[in-house]
Write a structure and sequence with these properties.
alpha/beta; four-stranded parallel sheet; 160 residues; globular
Length: 160
């Protein structure tokens, strides 16, 4: 759902209460002023909801998030994994390659079905769009990723 349609819709923020929740978060160091803001939004939501078993791991860039998420999902230590990255369009096809790589990687991990892997990667045309979505005018997609992790863990519990 687009950010514009999501803002100020409190009905979408009703979260299930889980007995426990262990989340692994992989954060790209590239564009860290954005990715760390996404992480802060997620950690704030988890703390507010009473979940403290959150582990954060940093990787160099967005492409490396797939490897990190794969290792984390297969470790058996987490109920969900979140990846945070930020890819800003430039003047070369690099943007497309990176976006395709992380999108396909997360889709593959989700199809494997070990644990939900939440896509918290911003893919924007410019830096301002990223800032707006990482705690700026359009909210924080990190908070939304944390909400998705909680909801998907609740969903996953129904099939165990």
């Amino acid at each position: 759902m687009s950010t514009e349609l999501r803002n100020n819709d409190t009905a979408l923020h009703t979260l299930p209460k889980l007995n426990s929740l262990r989340v692994g978060i992989a954060v790209a160091e590239w564009n860290s002023h954005i990715t760390e803001a996404l992480l802060a939004g997620a950690l704030e939501l988890f703390a507010r909801e009473g979940y403290s078993e959150i582990e954060v791991h940093h990787v160099p860039g967005t492409v490396e998030l797939t490897f990190a998420a794969s290792r984390m999902a297969r470790s058996g230590r987490y109920d969900a994994v979140i990846v945070f990255g930020c890819v800003i369009r430039g003047g070369t096809p690099h943007f497309d390659y990176v976006c395709d790589s992380i999108t396909q990687g997360v889709a593959t991990l989700n199809a494997e079905g070990r644990v939900p892997v939440i896509f918290g990667v911003l893919t924007t045309d410019d830096e301002q769009q990223a800032i707006d979505r990482a705690g700026g005018a359009l909210g924080n997609k990190g908070t939304e990723a944390a909400e998705a992790a909680i909801k998907m863990c609740d969903f996953s519990c129904k099939f165990q």
